Amino acid sequence: MTAPATAIPELSRPVRLRQIDARPIQIEANDAERAALAERFALPAVNALTAEIVLERDGEKVRARGTMSAQIHQTCAVSGEEFPVSLTEDIALVFLPASDFALSGAMPDDDEPIEIELEREELDEIEYEGDTIDLGEAVAQTLGLAIDPYAEGPGADAARTQAGLEEAAARGPLADMLDALKKG
To answer: Cα angle at 15 between 14 and 21, to 5 degrees?
Structure first.
């Protein structure tokens, strides 16, 4: 979950490491930020985006735990119509200095794939440089991961029926292959 270094985050909430304490941090995206996030994630609209996050510092490592809530509009993957979606996601991230992301050891000379095992807490790590982390970008990335790219709206079944896809889906591909074998 690392943003490109040249990208300017649509939702930026920098927090200096020395300012971290046990108080929850509230994040609420404004109109311009929500519009930019809607464009970034190819959504018709992001109507609301909030998060409450508690930070815990352990040296240069910062754990972030909390909840993100969003009200968005998505486009139905079947009918193409817009429909509202409510999202709530737990946030459990670890911010690590960029130097911790370097792979240790030499890379093999051949094209053999390398297998790397990750521990559960290593799965949602975000790299940072200097003495500041960006909670806003972390919330934006959490939103992006929570969006269902194949979401179906309330008119999906009617659109399938109208297009004649309902019967083919009910029969399945095996039935179609058997029919082809019978004919041939």
So the answer is: 160
- Count CB-CB contacts under 10 A for residue 141: 21
Q: What is the DSSP letter of 151?
A: -
User: Alpha-carbon torsion 29, 31, 35, 36, what sign?
Assistant: negative
CA distances from 84 to 51, 79, 102 (A): 19, 14, 41
Helix (H) or strand (E) holding 184, with range, is: none
Of 12, 145, 45, 34, nearest in space to 89 by CA: 145
Within 8 A by CB and 6+ apart from 48, the residues are 29, 34, 69, 70, 71
**184 residues of the chain, pLDDT tens digit each:** 554 455 678 999 999 999 999 899 999 999 999 999 999 999 999 999 999 999 999 999 999 999 999 999 999 888 889 999 999 999 999 999 988 765 434 445 556 666 666 565 555 888 899 999 999 999 999 999 999 988 888 877 887 787 777 654 555 666 666 667 777 6
Which two structure tokens, joined as six digits, stand for 132?
A: 């500041």
